[in-house]
Amino acid sequence: MSGPHVVRGSVSLPEAELMWRFSRSSGPGGQHVNTSDTQVELRFDLARTEALPEVWRRRALERLAGRLTDGVITVRASEHRSQWRNREAAAVRLAALLAEATAPPPKPRRPTRVPRGINERRLREKKRRGETKRGRSARDW
Predict the structure, then answer these.
(1) Which segments of 1-141 does DSSP mark as H helices, in order?
(2) Residue among 7, 6, 102, 108 at smallest CA distance from 58
(3) Strands 18-23 and 39-45, how do they pair?
(4) How confident is the model at residue 24 (pLDDT cuts 50, 70, 90)?
């Protein structure tokens, strides 16, 4: 593979903790399709990893709980015809998934009040629009 798979900053996934599995991709093919194992399945044991800081690991376990099987996250790639490119795609996808899952939570929204002038302008516009519509009715005929 081409270098370490960086999650964020200086944190990267060690190759020793990645488990690769290869199988035949589905879909149409030719003479080559029955002999090549191009589909890639990449597994990473999130529950037991030492590569991520403890806070990140807990955050990722919590956020990816629906995708985990016994603490292991699995990513598949079969969109390319070569196993090498599928390996690259799976590794990039896993790193992006972990980067998103370990990101710090967003700052809480500070509630603000609507300025009085804006509220008054909105009410004036509503009143004017109502007058316009009332003037269209033909009740004086």
Answers:
(1) 54-63, 83-102, 116-136
(2) 102
(3) antiparallel
(4) confident
Tokens of 133: 């519509």
Split at pLDDT 50, 70, 90, the class of 18 is: confident
* pLDDT band of 53, cuts 50, 70, 90: confident
Give the integer Cα–Cα distance in Å for 50 and 76. Answer: 23
In 3-state terms the chain splits into helix, strand, coil percentages (rounded to 5) of: 40, 20, 40
Q: Which helix (H) or strand (E) holds 22?
A: strand 18-23
How far is the C-alpha of 41 from the C-alpha of 71, rounded, in Å? 16
pLDDT surpasses 90 at 30: no
The CA distance from 80 to 76, in Å, is 12
Structure tokens at 42: 């990449």
User: Residue 28: what pLDDT?
Assistant: 66
102 and 60 Cβ atoms separated by less than 8 Å: yes
